[in-house]
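FAQ

Q: What does a record look like?
A: Structure on top, sequence underneath. For example:
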């Protein structure tokens, strides 16, 4: 039986990448050592690091004015590091609340001493089934405006970015390199890698170099929380996650073969459309999200009652469609169809759901 993994993260990785890892696990680049054993101070690793950074910037169409950090601590640590490092002039940050992970980002920013985190738009009242309307102008002056480009739990995503003159910061964890944006519109992007890029244990921060030398940058931050200190040491202030960076490198190479972000985003559109079209035509299943703001990556859906949801999940699991249970805060089902989920996986899932519906009328 072919298994399809619809988990929200850690998530499916490209099969050719896993095969390559298996093939070269005992001997990395003819070194006679495993990638799991090599030093982060070795030439082998410093070359790998430079190559990974260059590939990522190329895929994102970013120039010399951007730097990339390869960190640990997850996207969750960035909820703290972002305000700590860049809410340093006005000491105020604007947040758009589009769901669970935005709320977590706002809560953590509010804990940073001296920083005020304001919610400037929210879609809480609609149950987060849409992206909030963004005010045309921000009334106050802020160090940055923070958005969550893809809401992993609620299944919404920004199709257009807010028009703003305030520096734009994004938690892009769940649609990083899966949806096309003009990345130069952002001053800072962060993403946990465990959805579209690598196994858990790596966090990407892409930021304008200018932020690293800003005169308001605090001088006395703990080094591991300081973007400037981390950038000065090529993310190797302590031992970086060597294996995860190696995997990210392979995934980026795979992404190049898929036509880069534009190519994969087109395929993701096709995959998502297939599933949404089915859900919209179904009498049993329902996706509650406003159609224009649906995520390409995470597709939540519900039947009319919890018992039927559970039955679908049980039957799907038995048929090899794994991890379809919705997040505990919203229930129902959720299919995460990241870059590495093949089109056939979605096609087979839709056929399965169709059969289930036909049998349960
Ligand atoms: N932001 C978003 C949008 C997420 O989906 C997640 C994880 N599901 C997080 C933040 C938290 O990520 P991490 O576990 O890497 O801290």
């Amino acid at each position: 039986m072919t298994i399809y993994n619809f988990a929200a993260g850690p998530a499916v990785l490209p099969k050719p990448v896993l095969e390559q890892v298996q093939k070269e696990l005992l001997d990395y680049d003819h070194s006679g050592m495993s990638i799991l054993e090599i030093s982060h101070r070795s030439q082998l690793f410093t070359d790998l690091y430079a190559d990974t950074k260059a590939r990522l910037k190329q895929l994102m169409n970013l120039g010399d004015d951007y730097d990339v950090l390869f960190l640990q601590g997850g996207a969750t640590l960035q909820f703290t590091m972002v305000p700590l490092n860049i809410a340093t002039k006005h000491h105020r940050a604007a947040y758009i609340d589009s769901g669970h992970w935005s709320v977590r980002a706002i809560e953590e920013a509010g804990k940073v001493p001296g920083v005020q985190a304001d919610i400037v738009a929210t879609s809480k009242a609609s149950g987060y089934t849409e992206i909030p309307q963004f005010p045309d102008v921000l009334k106050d002056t802020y160090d940055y405006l923070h958005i969550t480009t893809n809401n992993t739990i609620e299944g919404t995503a920004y199709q257009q970015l807010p028009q703003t003159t305030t520096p734009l910061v994004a938690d892009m964890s769940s649609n990083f390199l899966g949806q096309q944006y003009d990345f130069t519109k952002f001053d800072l992007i962060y993403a946990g890698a465990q959805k579209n890029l690598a196994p858990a244990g790596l966090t990407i921060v892409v930021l304008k170099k200018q932020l690293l030398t800003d005169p308001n940058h605090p001088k006395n931050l703990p080094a591991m929380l300081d973007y400037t200190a981390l950038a000065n040491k090529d993310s190797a202030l302590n031992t970086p996650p060597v294996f995860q960076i190696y995997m990210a490198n392979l995934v980026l190479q795979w992404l190049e073969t898929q036509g880069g972000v534009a190519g994969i985003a087109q395929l993701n559109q096709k995959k998502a459309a297939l599933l949404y079209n089915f859900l919209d035509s179904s009498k049993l299943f329902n996706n509650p999200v406003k159609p224009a703001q649906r995520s390409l990556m995470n597709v939540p859906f519900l039947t009319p009652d919890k018992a039927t949801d559970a039955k679908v999940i049980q039957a799907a699991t038995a048929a090899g469609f794994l991890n379809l249970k919705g997040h505990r805060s919203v229930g129902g089902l959720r299919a995460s169809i990241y870059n590495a989920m093949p089109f056939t996986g979605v096609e087979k899932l839709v056929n399965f759901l169709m059969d289930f519906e036909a049998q349960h009328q």
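Q: Is there anything notable about this one?
A: The radius of gyration is 21 Å.
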